[in-house]
UniProtKB/TrEMBL annotation:
TPR repeats lie at residues 86-119. PANTHER family: ANKYRIN REPEAT FAMILY PROTEIN, OS03G0680600 PROTEIN. The lineage of its organism: Eukaryota, Viridiplantae, Streptophyta, Embryophyta, Tracheophyta. SMART domains: TPR. The keyword Transferase does not apply. This is Uncharacterized protein. It comes from the Eukaryota. It comes from Oryza sativa subsp. japonica (Rice).
Amino acid sequence: MEVELLSSMDKQDDQNEKAQLKLCGEKAVKRKDYRGASNFYSQAIEMDPTDATLYSNRSLCHLQMTEAEAALFDAEFCIQLRPEWIKGYYRKGAALMLLKKHEKACDAFMAGLKLEPGNAEMEKALREAIEAMKKHHVATKNFKPSD
């Protein structure tokens, strides 16, 4: 009985610490201290590697620091944990845009729109990805290698 009680108290302490780390991360984001926020989210992830919100938040930090590969990794992990949550697809699309993988970004934004049709933020991101894809296509079409 005492062991169960101690175990329950430990779990509660872990949840409280995770919540504190997440809160510190959110405050750091508000200060635009994305490196610090990323560190807080990483510590929270160590305590609970199944919390998709933490991966989404850390993905945002990586995006703000133009660390596209890390942002993509966290976004994909977020999607694995919560495939029904639109935010993971948005982060994935944003990371792919940073990587100039516009077609794949469109796919990510479309996947998000399938979950939440009419989401204005996702629709705007999709339009921007399509526009970037068009510009890239025109730029490569007009490129003439020298003989």
